[in-house]
Amino acid sequence: MLEHDVIIVGGGLAGCRAALEIKQTDPSIDVAIVAKTHPIRSHSVAAQGGMAATLRNVDPEDGWEAHAFDTVKGSDYLADQDAVAILTQEAPDVVIDLEHLGVLFSRLPDGRIAQRAFGGHSHKRTCYAADKTGHAILHELVNNLRRYGVRVYEEWYVLQLILEENTAKGVVMYRILDSSLEVVRAKAVMFATGGYGRVFNTTSNDYASTGDGLAMCAIAGLPLEDMEFVQFHPTGLYPVGVLISEAVRGEGAYLRNSDGKRFMEDYAPNQMELAPRDITSRAITLEIRAGRGIHPDGSPGGTFVHLDLRHMGRESIMLRVPFAWEEAHRHLDIDAVDEPMPVRPTAHYSMGGIPVNTDGQVRRSADSLVEGFFAAGECACVSVHGANRLGSNSLLECVVYGRRTGKTIAGCVQNRKLPNVNAQSYLNAAKERIQSLLNQNGTIRIAKIRQEFQDCMSEHCGVFRTAEIMQEGLKRLRQLQQQYGQIYLDDKDTCWNTELLEALELQNLTIVGETILTSALKRQESRGAHSREDFPNRNDKQFLKHTLAYYSPAGIEIEYMDVSINRFEPKERKY
């Protein structure tokens, strides 16, 4: 059995920042990170647009209160306002801290950190490194992990959270290279496992974003919060689904329909292309429904709209959004200097996740916590995004709450002993689980069920939803879950068995998908990214509260938890 003072699952921004904070607080604490990819291949590296902070380098009128209000309004008033205050107050400090770690932010002519406009923000406050901001931050954090001696288990897959007597005691993990199994016991466990975009058939997320941490919590009997709120980013490159950053619209690009019209003037006349993502995604979907989408040959009635950069000029495009240009050129052979990009909404971000308090401690219920268990980043729900996240607040959440959770953990482990764990029983159960998958004599390929499941989620729980459509989706999803026992694996090898990994991930995806659909069906209102055509209005009287969904194989039970409202009273959301 392996042992560390702290085990962090996930090598992205939140996990790396937490590990760094623990070691900076007390270098003697033994910290390890386990990640199913190399940390630099974590999905955080794909974050493009930037990170919001009221540095006032471009707009001296900005302040944390304005940032907080924009965030709460953007969340459709479901964000916890105490958590938002921490996020926005600490934002300038964490940006300067990252700069001191070596992050190469883009600069103004006088040398200060540059800031750009972003959707839903009332001021130019988004700090950036061209359109490769996540890449710039993650590389420096990973370099600092080496400097501080953090142990990294790269390309290990965590199978189970060890949770006994309401205390997190460690994890069971599987080495992808050779199929070896290990139990790790620890004084504190942190999940920073990212999102679950692969629940849907078209997503900006990488192939590793399969909701593993959320599913492990659900299986362990812990609730998942606000899972119905899935953000569809307005500008996924059609048909591949990869992200064209909001930074492109922040730099002045236009959205146009088949008539060549900048149609956002009909939906958000003040903010136009920089309206919040939920509003912009619905606008694009409605334009396509109305027959004003575009076909590949340029004729009307198609399934995408155009993102037009041509007026920006080659020099500005190549200087400020080079990666967006590169993506369109690489995938579709489009030169965005001369041609518009085809875009449509793509599943992008999870506002919900593992419920935590503002110190990163995981909740067992609305009013109780799990001992020694923490979470931060996209897999967690603190909740600073509520029903809809503003662009450039996700990198900020990872760094602010990664740092804050790390500080909490550093204090938590000081006087704790390593827990007692019966490692053999967990190893036996893991071996049995893996062997049963390898021995399964089914008739269905994994890829077939996964594709049908992803199609089901996209069709039945997309940008617009109704009870009838979601009930059909749940029925279909349960049929697919029953077929999981009929899959078969061709690869029986112990060396780098990616087929086995996909089988394990598929089970997690279906648990997350069922939680999303059930939570969405129960919320009979439209709020933020959750848009019900059968309940088109927001209903504060009944649903100004967080969803807590408890999974079991027999079904999902829903409870609710109050929203923290201490500064901004809910009102109608207009842009």
List the helices and strands and how they pair.
Layout: E1 2-9, H1 13-25, E2 31-35, E3 51-52, H2 64-74, H3 81-101, E4 115-116, E5 126-127, H4 133-148, E6 151-154, E7 156-164, E8 167-175, E9 181-191, H5 212-219, E10 224-225, E11 230-237, H6 246-250, E12 254-256, H7 277-289, E13 305-308, H8 314-320, H9 322-332, E14 341-350, E15 354-355, E16 361-365, E17 368-375, E18 380-381, H10 394-412, H11 423-439, H12 446-460, E19 464-465, H13 467-483, H14 498-522, E20 531-532, H15 540-543, E21 545-552, E22 555-562
Parallel strand pairs: 1-2, 1-9, 2-6, 9-17, 15-18, 19-20
Antiparallel strand pairs: 3-5, 4-5, 7-8, 8-9, 10-21, 11-14, 12-13, 13-14, 16-17, 21-22
Helix pairs in contact: 1-4, 1-10, 2-3, 3-10, 5-14, 12-13, 12-14, 13-14
Cofactor: FAD
Active site: 277 (proton acceptor)
InterPro entries: FAD-dep_OxRdtase_2_FAD-bd, FAD/NAD-bd_sf, FRD_SDH_FAD_BS, Fum_R/Succ_DH_flav-like_C_sf, Fum_Rdtase/Succ_DH_flav-like_C, SdhA/FrdA/AprA, Succ_DH/fumarate_Rdtase_cat_sf, Succ_Dhase_FrdA_Gneg
The CATH class assignment of the domain at 433-562 is Mainly Alpha
What gross morphology would you assign? globular
What amount of the residues lies in strands?
A: 15-25%
The CATH superfamily of the domain at 433-562 is identified as Fumarate reductase/succinate dehydrogenase flavoprotein-like, C-terminal domain
CATH fold category name of the domain at 433-562: Methane Monooxygenase Hydroxylase, Chain G, domain 1
Q: Summarize the amount of helix as a percent range.
A: 25-40%
Q: Sketch the major β-sheet.
A: 8 strands, mixed
CATH architecture of the domain at 433-562: Up-down Bundle
Task: Decide which structural class fits the backbone.
Answer: alpha/beta
Distance between the termini: 56 Å
What is the mean pLDDT? 96
Low-confidence stretches: none
The tally of helices reads 15
| Rg measurement, Å | 23 Å
Count of distinct strands = 22
